[in-house]
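Why this split exists: single-chain examples teach little about how molecules sit against one another. For that reason, every record in the complexes split bundles all components of an assembly together and asks for one structure covering all of them. Below is a record exactly as it appears in the raw files.
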Amino acid sequence: EIVLTQSPGTLSLSPGERATLSCRASQSVSSSYLAWYQQKPGQAPRLLIYGASSRATGIPDRFSGSGSGTDFTLTISRLEPEDFAVYYCQQYGSSSWTFGQGTKVEIK
Amino acid sequence: EVQLVESGGGLVKPGRSLRLSCTASGFTFGDYAMSWFRQAPGKGLEWVGFIRSKAYGGTTEYAASVKGRFTISRDDSKSIAYLQMNSLKTEDTAVYYCTRVWVAVANHWGQGTLVTVSS
């Protein structure tokens, strides 16, 4: 099973700042099968990025994904108040899915 | 508009069974794989299992933590996916989410239903 490790665990930033979230895999992941989700308290997760770098429908262009192999990054160029949430990376491989443990982006 | 509505959650004793339903609307249900995820209180997301569309055999895959205890099925005529949970354990306590699968991602989620396993 591929293990995804996200860092940092918590990111304390101010609105307008840039957020860089990391997701590292224990073995190589197909870029086609790496995704990022956002989850706010009391809500279901929402798909942000699929295929490592493609934005899902309706996702603002301040969100971008990059990376390949074992290292992937989610970048939020300028944080808006509604972006403070928990972010999860997810991979699909060998007919199973795994998630990272999440990065919480909190207001500084 | 794609909508997924889970139902069937509640309080159940360890060792008992529960069946969750996911009623879909706003898309051609039979064309898509459907997946279930869960989230224990205060914890991260965990994949439970998924069922392929009939075009891909309607076969299922499960996480190791639930394999042999949980079964996913689908009724395309009713646009419903099911999660049958047997031999429930306290560690199965979680909010269970139904999702529509598209290119190996969950691009639409239900609101979730809480399952509490406790004596």
